[in-house]
Amino acid sequence: MKVILDQDKCVASGQCVMAAPDVFDQRDEDGVAILLNDSPAAAGTEDVQHAASVCPALAIRLSE
After folding, report:
1. Does this model's pTM top 0.85?
2. 16-26 pLDDT, tens per residue?
3. DSSP one-letter code for 64
């Protein structure tokens, strides 16, 4: 799985960080999400899919 984060769309809600903290974090200065790992292990797939589904700005896309 490949994770694509559009930081320009991010509204800094932090939902992705709570859902998949090994894959996402937030910048200290404005809370915008940052991608820690764009190719997470298969074990984290469910968490990343959840993060994408709860993103209010639809800033996270997943590709196979």
Report:
1. yes
2. 999 999 999 99
3. -
